[in-house]
Design brief:
Elements lengths: L14 E4 L12 H9 L18 E6 L28 H15 L2 H9 L7 H17 L3 H11 E6 L8 E8 L1 E4 L9 E4 L15 H5 L15 E5 L3 H9 L1 E6 L4 E9 L7 H7 L10 H10 L4 H4 L7 E5 L18 E3 L10 E11 L5 E14 L9 E8 L1 H8 L2 E11 L5
Parallel strand pairs: 1-2, 4-14, 5-8, 11-13
Antiparallel strand pairs: 2-3, 3-15, 4-15, 6-7, 8-9, 9-10, 11-14, 12-13, 12-15
Helix pairs in contact: 2-4
Length: about 425
């Protein structure tokens, strides 16, 4: 789970705008006009920010208008990775596994309670389950991305996120599971710890201590206060434990050659504050074009600044050892590379099938990144402290360096749809 910063999740009341948009028919449109018509909610709809009667925020628009077929000369509506029709390796088995993870979650008491309170009309736990089961079947019946899209367009209703602008524009970032070298014991080299969840944390007074209160400006004072005895592993660089807190999990290679993993266990009740933004505000970095590699390069050149900027983020994450288990999402299932997303779970349906489209980076053989606009069928299985509102999605890209390199340069606007079977009992 990436930066999930609430101790107790609270479901907020939401609503969906139920609309019908006429098909495009045989209108002659330029490629650019066609794509705008396909993917954006029509400006003429004038979607209000809240329902006039219930005052609940409107986050999803149910539409009969699928974004299929693709516009002429454009393949971005096809998920060509499923059958290996693109430059990427086939990952149908990964997608099937991710669907199975969501189906397991949807049978839990937690899912039942969550969906009893979920207030977007037309989206129920039973309908989400039926939709996943039918989509899973279509993955076996279809032989290509185009064939799958044709079946989905016939059988499913698309609930589009209204996004940041009420026209469906969603900001995508990405996250990953880092791989770090760690020690089970502190040494002269491995000084910076991560911590397990304090057993008495439920009794801590509010407001909770901040990061600075808990570990000090240099991140070496935790043993003198509430974190004494809670150390799990130690790291060479101060930046590594902090990056783990941002990503929410990590694979660890220990000094004895063995491997393990750690995942999110809890957090203090303070919102995450971006150190990248702090660097921009202080004039240390330019106001545009800042990515994670830019930030890492800054601290590599001046590591002493870590003790200045990391303490400005009051949030703090605790971990548990998972013995090599895959990274877990907020719904307590394993995350799947390029098939799991994180959204605001006070608004969006947990475990549900979704379709995302954006301009994402892909690693090339020459160690360069090539950006392509693609669509991906994904499962909504995670949350994040910085992922708030209908216009934010965090895309899980997997484990290790390449996934991290891709995640660090992923900043793109795109679209988010949830797919629900037609003619299902509500």
């Amino acid at each position: 789970m990436k930066k999930s910063l609430l101790i107790i999740p609270i479901a907020l009341p939401v609503a969906a705008l139920l609309i019908t948009v006429s098909p495009l028919g045989r209108l002659l449109l330029s490629p650019v006009e066609c794509q705008l018509k396909r993917w954006q909610l029509p400006a003429s709809l004038k979607i209000p920010k809240a329902d006039t009667q219930t005052k609940k925020p409107i986050v999803l628009a149910s539409t009969e208008k699928p974004p299929f077929p693709c516009c002429e000369g454009d393949t971005s509506c096809l998920d060509r990775q499923i059958w290996g029709e693109s430059e990427q390796q086939e990952d149908r088995k990964i997608l099937l596994s991710s669907i199975d993870n969501s189906l397991r979650y949807l049978q839990t008491d937690s899912a039942k309670k969550t969906y009893e309170k979920y207030q977007v009309p037309g989206i129920t736990r039973e309908r989400v389950i039926g939709s996943l089961q039918r989509f899973r079947q279509l993955l076996f019946e279809s032989k290509s991305a185009a064939e799958l899209n044709q079946a989905v367009a016939q059988e499913f209703v698309f609930y589009q996120s209204v996004g940041n602008d009420n026209q469906g524009e969603v900001l995508f970032t990405a996250y990953f599971e880092p791989l770090y070298i760690a020690s089970r014991e502190p040494t002269a080299e491995y000084r910076y710890p991560i911590y397990s969840l304090p057993p008495d944390m439920k009794d801590w007074e509010r407001p909770h201590p901040t990061r600075l209160d808990l570990e000090g400006a240099d991140a070496l004072q935790g043993s003198k206060g509430k974190l004494k005895g809670l150390e799990l592993f130690w790291f060479k660089s101060r930046l590594e434990p902090y990056m783990m807190q941002i990503q929410g999990s990590a694979k660890l290679r220990l000094l004895d050659g063995t491997q393990t993993s750690v995942g999110f266990a809890g957090n203090v009740a303070h919102n995450y504050q971006s150190i990248g933004k702090a660097l921009i505000d202080d004039g240390e970095l330019p106001s545009s074009g800042v990515t994670m590699p830019t930030i890492l390069e800054y601290f590599e050149k001046d590591p002493k600044k870590l003790d200045v900027y990391i303490p400005r983020d009051p949030s703090f994450v605790f971990f548990q050892e998972n013995k090599g288990a895959p990274a877990q999402g907020s719904i307590q299932v394993g995350l799947s590379a390029e098939r799991s997303i994180a959204t605001d779970k006070s608004l969006m349906p947990p475990g549900a099938l979704a379709l995302i489209r954006g301009h994402f980076p892909f690693a090339q053989d020459n160690d360069q990144m090539k950006h392509r606009t693609v669509s991906r069928y994904v499962l909504d299985q995670d949350a994040g402290g910085a992922i708030k509102g209908a216009g934010r999605v965090d895309y899980f890209l997997g484990t290790g360096k390449i996934a991290g390199d891709r995640a660090g340069v992923t900043v793109t606007n795109g679209q988010l749809y949830y797919l629900l079977l037609k003619n299902q009992p509500l």
